[in-house]
Predict the structure.
Amino acid sequence: MSEPFESKPMKVEFWFEFASTYSYPAAMRIEALAASRGVAVAWRSFLLAPIFQQQGWNNSPFNIYPVKGQYMWRDLERICDRLDIPLRRPTKFPRNGLLAARVVCSHADEPWIPDFVRGIYSVNFAEDAEISDPTVISRCLTSLGQDAAAILATAETPASKDKLKAQTAEAMERGLFGAPSFLVGGELFWGNDRLEEALDWAVRAAR
Amino acid sequence: MSEPFESKPMKVEFWFEFASTYSYPAAMRIEALAASRGVAVAWRSFLLAPIFQQQGWNNSPFNIYPVKGQYMWRDLERICDRLDIPLRRPTKFPRNGLLAARVVCSHADEPWIPDFVRGIYSVNFAEDAEISDPTVISRCLTSLGQDAAAILATAETPASKDKLKAQTAEAMERGLFGAPSFLVGGELFWGNDRLEEALDWAVRAAR
């Protein structure tokens, strides 16, 4: 029997950047974990570079602070081991996820987006291939039965470029400073470590 | 029946800095969690300032990057709520934990150290009082039945000062860049979020 006044969980916004290492396990996990709690997920791509630039960084902080970077790779290895997610340390880091982020931003509500996002993350962190290469992105779209040429053409329009810029500006305005981030209404959770907590928050906040 | 070749878990080194916010819940939790797994804990105080200075920071990164600081205080609030640990946001941050760190460093193997560490963290993060004040530290020691005057005198000797300097240098050499950190042999875990993982590692690594 259901509670008479039981209401639906809040939506969780999943904010990710394709270059972000800790976004990789979050992207691989979120759909199943959210579904198990009845939580809807909004997939929101954004760019970290403009946010990092505001903090005075012109590169990933994991490259600027090598001792932190060294730890991150080991930590990510342990995380992926535990979750049984394949990981091959990218020979290039960070990779440029701009085009892939535009694809997501301009097609965010399409049902193939979660598979596409996981596909691009796998290219970067499991296959060590170049996610900025349009042929790689095309192949990913085609494998999902999508019209790659049409989608890439849409992604390159001024409207699509503006949409990703606006979404990145929104991320900054709402206090995001890294990825992955999860927003449940105004409540911010940062990091793959906070995924479960964000989902639980969405369930509790509705009651 | 015990396994014929079962061996003891490895020791976990708990590296903490009294100014560090996320070290507070870790300090409050570690003893009971470690005991429940049969893991021994080495309590190792160190200073973050020299490590942050090497990264070009002359203040807490939570003050240098306010958007990150704002998030941290909210995140810490949620963590303490969930763990039922009292939190009053310090009106001064970061506070200077030098003297308290020297007390720990020069008496690290004394049985009262875990209580003393928790006491100082509570002063900073639950009572919002000044942990650099010798009378506050004395009161904490006295409440544990210790000879506060003798302990503070020892803490201020050149040998004690050198010991904390050497311990901080050791932290840097072993790749520490923040607090709390946990070392299990050469395996580094960073952050209150990694406490359980570090303890589990210590248990598994022994088998």
Observations:
- Chain B has a mean pLDDT of 95.
- The first strand of chain B starts at residue 12 and ends at 16.
- Chain B has one domain: 17-205.
- Chain B is about 55% helix and 10% strand.
